[in-house]
Amino acid sequence: MNMIRSKLISGILLMAIVLLPASLTAQKSATIKIYPERAKDTISKEIYGHFAEHLGTCIYGGLWVGENSGIPNTLGYRTDVLNALKELKIPVLRWPGGCFADEYHWMDGIGPKNKRPKMVNNNWGGTIEDNSFGTHEFLNLCEMLGCEPYISGNVGSGTVEELAKWVEYMTSDGDSPMANLRRRNGRDKAWKVRYLGIGNESWGCGGDMRPEYYADLYRRYAVYCRNYDDNRLYKVASGASDYDYNWTDVLMKNIGRRMHGISLHYYTVKGWNGNKGAATVFDKDDYYRTIGKCLEIENVIKRHCEIMDRYDRDKRTGLLVDEWGTWWDEEPGTVRGHLYQQNSLRDAFVASLTLDVFHKYASRVRMANIAQIVNVLQSMILTNDKGGMVLTPTYHVFNMYKVHQNALCLPLTLICDEMNVPDNRTIPILSATASRDKNGAIHLSLSNIDADNAQTVSVEIAGLKTMKIANGTILTSTDLADHNTFDKPQTVTPANFTGAVTNNGILQVKIPAKSIVTLEIK
Ligand code: AHR
Fold this sequence. Notes:
Layout: E1 4-10, E2 29-34, E3 49-51, E4 73-74, E5 77-78, H1 79-87, E6 92-95, E7 119-121, E8 127-129, H2 135-145, E9 148-153, H3 160-171, H4 177-184, E10 195-198, H5 211-224, E11 234-241, H6 245-254, E12 261-268, H7 284-295, H8 297-311, E13 318-326, H9 345-360, E14 365-371, E15 381-383, E16 389-391, H10 393-401, E17 408-409, E18 412-421, E19 425-428, E20 430-436, E21 442-448, E22 455-461, E23 469-475, E24 495-496, E25 500-503, E26 506-511, E27 515-521
Parallel strand pairs: 2-22, 3-6, 3-14, 6-9, 9-10, 10-11, 11-12, 12-13, 13-14
Antiparallel strand pairs: 1-18, 2-18, 4-5, 7-8, 15-16, 17-20, 18-19, 20-21, 21-27, 22-26, 23-24, 23-27, 25-26
Helix pairs in contact: 3-4, 5-6, 6-8, 7-9, 9-10
């Protein structure tokens, strides 16, 4: 039985949290106060970043089918997927892994496709990788999507020379050996590549290193990954997994300003083996357990930030959560090791709640990349080899939330019920985030986590006497396990939201149980 009581939750860092007296009955109402005059942090658009690994059908079949495919494509990229991704205004795309990155040798993926060597994808099901999607195919995709590329370099099994040459190949416009090789392969002008990851999960699949050893290795790699012409690299150190605070501490101490960013990986339910649970078969307790684990990311981020603050008060080094999302059992009947999973309304909540947390820590969290973009883990899109495409509930959250990209984060306080959930965690029953865009419009996103009860939410915006609701969108469904399939792609889909009214400068929102709402207020 989940106990409900009221709690004041602050959207402002370091503000005290006050617990109101516990009550056993659901209050079903909440109060929010937004303080625009206290705003100081911009929500970097890169928080809405994505991740594409050579894993299962993320690249081959998902993004890339090749020009000779029967599936409609634009220069080899699936046209339907391309269009759906353009709609999301993707700011940054991380590639080629993940674990794959530390076994990837970029020279195998350039030049004539029929001459590219094959390799075994040891991390992901032993699938044969033919390298037909390589550097040119990835960087051209980023240009088509209008997003920044984020290259994850091979430190685990590669060499300093190999990564240094890759940077030169991609970004040098001079008369240099690698720039000339690129020209011979059909690309005259250098690409712009800002984000460079020096390894991935170097404590695990990326080399099984100790943090002291990795820190020295990072320093060595970073020296030789040069800024060519006007390209300026933002170098990212391979950071901690979840609760490994020592890793962050050692890197901050020993790498310091030599890195521009440090990564963090946090999955909601993670494991290589064992039962993580099915993506679409679960009960209410499983749902609340998931939400509890998801929201724990706030404590994890907070503790990593505290360590970073000790070495870097000015917040020059960014925290990049470059892998996050849900990790369920693979769908029955799919290839083992390909991490293909369905995506339900429960996943939509993991997306909205996690994004709310990233907004709150916008002063330090400069990028985040949900894992992964197509057909792998908590994906935006599912495809099949018959040309079918499905937009997941998570896609719809990203689409509703894109209004927060590069907007000013507005601090807020929230008083709502809280609930005890499995694994000894306590969660608020409502989550809220607000921002103001460059045109002055305020966007408020609300997630009513409560599976059974609607909430009446009163919202006040300090300094705003009148408000007009310009737009409202809701994402909900009959059942938390509802999801979209190739046969029924519209089961969980956004709809126009009309449950908000304004009265004397107060906004009243009646948000149904298990629903996510975004409002535009002018
Ligand atoms: O996203 C799947 C895998 O999870 C990545 O390859 C790895 O970095 C992480 O452990």
